[in-house]
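Marked as duplicate of an earlier ticket. Keeping the data here for the record.
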Amino acid sequence: MLIPLLYFVLAGATLTAIIWSASKLFAQPDDFLNDRLEELRSAGVVGSGRPRKSTQGLPGKFLRFVAMIPGADDWIRGAEKRLKQAGYRGEKTLSNYIMMASGFLVFCFAFIIWANRGNDLSNMFGALVAAGIIGFVGPQFVLGKLATRYRQRLQEALPDTIDLLGIVLGTGLALDQAMNRVSDEMQHIYPELANEFYTVTMQVRAGQERAKAFNAMVKRTGLEDVKALSAMIIQSERFGTSLSSALNAYAEDLRQRRRLRAEEAVGKAGIKMLFPIVLFILPALFVIVLVPAIIQTIHDMQSLGAAR
């Protein structure tokens, strides 16, 4: 009686920790300015006299505990990089993710032990290994999907945003002012890329070199198009060439690439629909069309046999 109760309490606590960490991790902040300031403080770009929030509270203490485990530093650094690539860069984001991933791993082990409570430990070894793999790889897989979706949103936003940036630069505004104006205009349409531009301008205002700020954006996003844009802006600033016309031409090139990607996706749709049609739609169609005819044929043959 005590062991099932203990499993129930452990599973409830683990699920509560996972849900709480997920709500904190995926909650989008309403104040984007404060979120970017917090990011700059955590990166050491903007000074702050108060301690970092990530070192306070239960998630911060749990993060420090996990960091003491041998080999966990590489996992934590990789998770931090993937979180940045997925667009989650708050101070408590890393600690909340580590807590949620660890809770999911514990839950997988606890569920396997509870499901095989009548078996010996040697018989549960394979199931425990599978639970460990699922518990460790599962959160990373979800985070990778989120990062991929974030990069796709950035890629879709680049042509229109760069086109607008070229137009604003053509009016005579400086690069930082133009990027701020574009960020304000695109905040409700493409918030991901608008926040990236806003982060770059804030880092430049804080005293960081523009080249380093753009290189940091390239590392955060991991997009080749953003890398080409950063190189174009840096070279234009270095050699004093016109940036507006170059951005307009680059925006047209990106728009053409987006059109080609859409055509490619349309071309792949037929092949992707082939397997669901063969596995699900055609069997149901055969049942609807052929089964009544087969039943009628069997009924007619039975009637002929009875008549003889």
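See parent ticket for discussion. Residues 243-307 form the longest helix (65 residues).
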